[in-house]
Amino acid sequence: MHELILHHYDASPFAEKARLMLGFKQLSWRSVEIPRIMPKPDLTALTGGYRKTPVLQVGADIYCDTALIARRLEAEKATPALLPEGQEFNTSLLAQWADSVLFQHAVALVFQPQSIAVRMGRLPAAAQQAFIADRSALFSGGSASRVPLEQAKHNWPALMGRLQQQLQREDGDFLFGEPSLADFSVAHCLWFLRGTPVTAPLVDDYPEVSAWLARVLGFGHGSFSEMSSEQALAVAREATPAALPEEEFIEPNGLQVGQSVTIAAVDYGVDPVQGELLFAGREELILRREDERAGVLHVHFPRLGFRIEAR
């Protein structure tokens, strides 16, 4: 049985989502710190070019995107459930909305000049410029549209008002009563805003939301220990990828097993990953690729939010 290895960095909101899910599941894991900006040579040796944070590694299987990481953690430990029985549709749908719409509002608010001055004020000017250039490249070429700051400020009271109303009316302490993927998907956006006194009031001014966020963050990050990126590459190189899922191959556009394809995110961070198509299921796509340092790998992507094309 291979260890769970999370490739991430502390300040990443989506990494915080993954860390909280690991804590909720009370799982043990290894922590590999990756650079905040490109290049990320050890990470992309595993993924084939996918650069977003975080990435979950289990032996020679590499899981991209927190939506799919959540499903892999469900397979690792069924209870407590991120997708509670009978609420799978609601929790997945709200999580998808939070990871896109709510997150883009949070990005606009966090990256306003006053907030950035606090977050990055201690960094040298060259480091600040490099970070801004990296994030501009990250959002280039995809379908995600940046929310103007004025519009994010305009929309925020409605978004928080609806969230607060849901919490007031739902039985239990979480968005759908019991904790679920929806809670962690909303929480990481608000955790991001909590990062400076400039944006923290956008959360703290809503008492029910603030109390709920404290409950979600209270799950913690589980039990983890540090691992170097070189050690993680060695784990992949020495491992054999897991057996493919037992599910009918579903590829509506006629692609076949064994075909050379590329898979890429459609919203941002659209760097394509090339490999041999091994599996296409309702939720998951799997490529086989080989790397000089990491060996033979199976790289997993969610179907939603990604495109697949023949080479």
From TrEMBL:
<dbReference type="Pfam" id="PF13417">
    <property type="entry name" value="GST_N_3"/>
</dbReference>
<dbReference type="Pfam" id="PF13410">
    <property type="entry name" value="GST_C_2"/>
</dbReference>
<protein>
    <submittedName>
        <fullName>Glutathione S-transferase family protein</fullName>
    </submittedName>
</protein>
<dbReference type="InterPro" id="IPR036282">
    <property type="entry name" value="Glutathione-S-Trfase_C_sf"/>
</dbReference>
<dbReference type="InterPro" id="IPR004045">
    <property type="entry name" value="Glutathione_S-Trfase_N"/>
</dbReference>
<dbReference type="InterPro" id="IPR036249">
    <property type="entry name" value="Thioredoxin-like_sf"/>
</dbReference>
<feature type="domain" description="GST N-terminal">
    <location>
        <begin position="2"/>
        <end position="81"/>
    </location>
</feature>
